Amino acid sequence: MNITFIGGGNMSSALIGGLLQQGYSPGQIRVVEISAERREKIKHAFKVETVAELAKGVSGSDVILLAVKPQQLSGVARELASQLRNQLVISIAAGIRATDISRWMSGYARVVRAMPNTPALIRAAVTGLYALPGVSMEEKHNAEAILGAVGSVLWCDREELLDAVTAVSGSGPAYVFYFIEAMQKAGQELGLDASQARRLSLATFLGAAELANQSGDDVATLRARVTSQGGTTERAIQTLENAGVKHAIVHAIHGASQRSRELGDEFGET
Ligand SMILES: NC(=O)C1=CN([C@@H]2O[C@H](COP(=O)(O)OP(=O)(O)OC[C@H]3O[C@@H](n4cnc5c(N)ncnc54)[C@H](OP(=O)(O)O)[C@@H]3O)[C@@H](O)[C@H]2O)C=CC1
Ligand SMILES: O=C(O)[C@@H]1CCC=N1
């Protein structure tokens, strides 16, 4: 499968890096990017072909992956309409609905909406997928193969669920990094040096996530096992509860989902 990425930014780089690690050859990947500086950066990092013009970029491609900002997508989709020759179109833009993308491309039906996340770069992404009814089983398999090459995939049968996926796992790495930042800061305030604080925080995150993944118990039970009565964890968790941190996290994720819906409303018509 030859894949053309439209937009060569952060997320395309993460996906391309993961695909190459998985065994895709640079010859199978092309990037259409308007910024000359970005084109150079991508060519240098991945040895893939980069072009400025859309028509040149999509010719001979089996899959077109739209990775521009949501605000830029309608222009790109409209320009793409005349270039389509049965390719599968996958959009990773937050919020923008597959039905709108299809309409911008004069009713083209082979559209999959996907929401990956940046751990794609190390093939540890999780991606939510939604296909328009006009997408065949074979095309769904192809979408799954591409996004599956950089991590795991999960199909959603209703498009609105992609807003929830975006809020939980699309944006999710940023929440995790935010929490790690706070742990590192506290560690340093308590006298650890920067590298010790980083190592302890990251190892704790990785260990706890892997334990939760492998354990048959839910995370509340796992948390209770760390929390000795009258001990240190109890003091910390109580402080988090008093400050309403769990509530704030839930609220934040609802906000991200709301923003995803707003992007769909702002730039779409359905
Ligand atoms: N970052 C993330 O973690 C995730 C992002 N996404 C989605 O992926 C998409 C891309 O995000 P991200 O990579 O972070 O964004 P970036 O801004 O890093 O990348 C988009 C790139 O596309 C370029 N571009 C704009 N218009 C065109 C055009 N007509 N043809 C070719 N290239 C063009 C932009 O140039 P310029 O900057 O000059 O406009 C920019 O270099 C977004 O829609 C986002 O919602 C999805 C999942 C996770
Ligand atoms: O912040 C954003 O809008 C994009 C979508 C998910 C992650 N980054």
UniProtKB/TrEMBL annotation:
Its EC number is 1.5.1.2. Residues 159-263 form the Pyrroline-5-carboxylate reductase dimerisation domain. The keyword Cytoplasm applies. Pathway: Amino-acid biosynthesis; L-proline biosynthesis; L-proline from L-glutamate 5-semialdehyde: step 1/1. GO terms for biological process: L-proline biosynthetic process. NADP(+) binds at residues 6-11, 67-70. One of its GO terms (cellular component) is cytoplasm. Catalyzes the reduction of 1-pyrroline-5-carboxylate (PCA) to L-proline. HAMAP family: P5C_reductase (MF_01925). This is Pyrroline-5-carboxylate reductase. It comes from Nitrosospira lacus.
